[in-house]
Write a structure and sequence with these properties.
It is a single chain. It contains eight helices and ten strands. The protein is α/β, with parallel strands linked by helices and 273 residues long. Strands 1, 2, 3, 4, 5, 6, 7, 8, 9 and 10 form a ten-stranded mixed beta sheet that branches. The chain is globular. The site of iron/sulfur cluster has 12 residues, from loops.
């Protein structure tokens, strides 16, 4: 079976938003599209398209404002846990206007699941290779991440201020989840095209590595829109995203995309040796 490893995946949970960041929103006007369970199932259930997902290093929930469609985030995380889908780290990006306790709880659940899973894998490895040496187990456990889930607030000057009350609610509910802030500098907003007054982001070149004929690693962001389309990249306006669609999720093979789209003018494909 062919296998694909992905470094970064983003799910655009919704194109709706509950605020309007004047002059900043990289997306443009909000749109009435929401990701659904079929899209999530299809993204992960790749066998019918001839390959298996062998690992996703980082999954980001973005939008629009993802907390407006919490059901699909909860569904995705529960699916990852129940079906043992190899996703190693999850971030929820939010403008912090809404506190949805169920979202923090499901991230807590994922964080605990990953902690137990990683600790068990280390202990099993040590039992097999080092005769359960406590010193080696302790050393290896020291190197595991302190958290496998993050909630990241957008806090640049264009976003609406996040109230102390909401921050407190998030902090009190979080169990071992990292809560961070992300502030895009004004200069970067224009340079990168994040502003609707700035230029659009350039198309993403695709970087991939082939470990053998049947194993490929894709380093770019693989982005699924709230319409179920797949693109590489994802930062930019909805218009730019829609202009760069590779295909709809149930038709795209992320293994074959390297060949299929090499000659297209959507993007350039680079193989790393
Ligand atoms: S930048 Fe984010 S929070 Fe602000 S209007 Fe756009 S989608 Fe909404």
């Amino acid at each position: 079976m062919k296998k694909v490893e992905l470094y970064n995946v983003s799910f655009e949970i919704t194109r709706r938003c509950n605020i309007r960041c004047e002059g900043f929103c990289m997306r443009g006007d909000a749109q009435n599209f929401d990701m659904n369970k079929y899209m999530v199932d299809t993204f992960f259930d790749t066998k019918s398209r001839g390959y298996a997902l062998d690992g996703i290093h980082h999954l980001c929930f973005t939008g629009g404002e993802p907390t407006l469609n919490p059901e699909i985030i909860i569904y995705t995380i529960n699916k990852i846990i129940e079906e043992n889908i190899p996703v190693y780290n999850i971030t929820l990006m939010t403008n912090g206007q809404l506190f949805v306790p169920e979202l923090v709880q499901v991230l807590n659940k994922y964080n605990k699941y990953m902690t137990l899973k990683t600790n068990k894998a280390i202990r099993d490895y040590c039992a097999e290779n080092f005769g359960n040496s406590p010193k080696i187990i302790e050393r290896m456990l020291k190197n595991v991440p302190s958290s496998y889930a993050q909630i990241t607030f957008s806090t640049d000057r264009f976003h609406k201020l996040i109230t102390e009350e909401v921050r407190k609610q998030y902090s009190e509910c979080a169990e071992g989840i990292e809560i961070t802030n992300f502030e895009v500098k004004d200069s970067d907003i224009i340079k990168s095209g994040f502003s609707k007054n700035g230029k659009e982001l350039k198309k993403e070149d695709v970087l991939y590595k082939e470990a053998n004929g049947n194993y490929r690693i894709i380093y770019n962001y693989v982005y699924m829109t709230a319409k179920g389309d797949i693109i590489f990249g994802g930062d930019g306006s909805y218009q730019n995203i829609d202009n760069n669609v590779i295909g709809i999720v149930d038709e795209v093979s992320l293994f074959d995309v390297v060949e299929t789209y090499k000659e297209s003018n959507l993007t350039k494909i680079y193989k790393i040796s």
